[in-house]
From TrEMBL:
Gene3D superfamilies attached to this UniProt entry: Jelly Rolls
Record's subcellular location: Cytoplasm; Nucleus
Annotated pathway: Amino-acid biosynthesis; L-methionine biosynthesis via salvage pathway; L-methionine from S-methyl-5-thio-alpha-D-ribose 1-phosphate: step 5/6
Pfam families in the cross-refs: ARD (PF03079)
Superkingdom of this protein's organism: Eukaryota
Cofactor(s) needed: Fe(2+); Ni(2+)
Catalyzed reactions: 1,2-dihydroxy-5-(methylsulfanyl)pent-1-en-3-one + O2 = 4-methylsulfanyl-2-oxobutanoate + formate + 2 H(+); 1,2-dihydroxy-5-(methylsulfanyl)pent-1-en-3-one + O2 = 3-(methylsulfanyl)propanoate + CO + formate + 2 H(+)
Residues binding Ni(2+), per UniProt: 104, 106, 110, 149
Listed name of the protein: Acireductone dioxygenase
Enzyme class: oxidoreductase
Amino acid sequence: MAVSEDVRRLAEPDSMETSELDAWYMDDSEDDQRSPHRKTPNEAASLEHLKKLGVLYWRLKGEQDPKLAAIREARGYSYKDVITVSPEKLPNYEQKIKSFYEEHMHTDEEIRFVLEGSGYFDVRDFDERWIRIDCREGDMIVLPEGIYHRFTLDSNNYIKAMRLFVGEPVWTPLNRPIDDHDSRKKYVATFQASEAFHETPGSISSASPIAAH
Ligand SMILES: [Fe+2]
């Protein structure tokens, strides 16, 4: 069934003007992965920049927010479940959160809506730097297919999140390096190559790995 214009409008990701997103470039310290890893002074990453990387973001007012239903309808997110990550709820907690923190990608979007608690999604910028996205209650985030990323809880050690998916879910992480995978190539062609075009319109053939081959 076609999605109505009203639903489509309601499902629009937050814009720069309305966003309450907090994201920053990470420092290089070897501290616990759960600490914020902000630089001094802080170097913020804008929502506009995250959009160029293919990351979408909404701040919702709980599960009853009509935007949630609209996003699910507009984007075809038929599947949903709820996952709780905490030392009490997850066996082998310390080991598990280390595995979430391995750099990886998926063959589909990763979609999370934080119901309680908080955590960090880290995504790779075009220049390989890590951008840390602070996700807390009410934040909904979509990471595109093929983006290199990782997840960690913060020092509160607790998150309860809704996981959404188009059809039957596939959660398998594919650890980096996996540059030859179709999902990765698609990501590079869609986002990284267009970014190269954006930054250096005169040198697309040398700047884009897709155009170079
Ligand atoms: Fe993931």
